[in-house]
Amino acid sequence: MSPKKSLLFSAAAATLLLCGGCNMSPDVATIVTIADGTKVDVPMGANASQPVEDDAMIIKLLQFSPWDMGPDKPKAVAFRFIVEFLKGAQPTSIVIEDVTEDPVELIFQDPHAHLIKGNIWGAASRPFAPQDEHVKWILTLDNNVRVYRFTVKLADGSVHRLLKPVIIPGFMKDFMRTQLGLKAQ
After folding, report:
1. Sheet of 91-98: strands edge to edge?
2. Residue 34 and residue 104: Cα distance in Å, rounded?
3. Which terminus of the chain has fewer Cβ atoms in its 10 Å neighbourhood, N or C?
4. Upstream peptide bond of 71 is cis (omega within 30 degrees of 0)
5. pTM
6. What count of other Cβ atoms lies within 10 Å of the Cβ of residue 60?
7. In this predicted model, what pLDDT tens digit does every residue of 140-158 receive, in sequence order?
């Protein structure tokens, strides 16, 4: 093989190996023990933001962000949720709790839940001060995994419970603290 062909072949092989490696995304997870002792698999990497679902619903969004409380008032943190209901399921009540550790913290409760558009339910929590037990983990420097439990009662009387883990890297908490005008503790 000529040096030119050998170099071309080597370059092609290297390109295939590099591109093939880019397409490979191994399943990586960690296990977190929550307040009641249950062990929860937490997907990491490319699979970290996958929706959590069962036969009646899909948790499409659990997001927290700074909340402007108005002029001359400190900012707070609020959660937003979107759940898609499947096969005609109709929610009648929804409770969302942070079950990462004791004490379990109530984040949101809708005792008269109803779909807001088609088969979608959505809501926002009340704003929490950053020092509040519900969100004080924002004040720490380390990475966190928080686990939120959605307990949903449907019109047919069935109750569905889904656990939604959220990975919160230190750099995201740093950004949140900056937006809130705070320093780490």
Report:
1. 105-110, 91-98, 144-154, 159-168
2. 9
3. N
4. no
5. 0.82
6. 15
7. 888 899 999 999 999 999 9
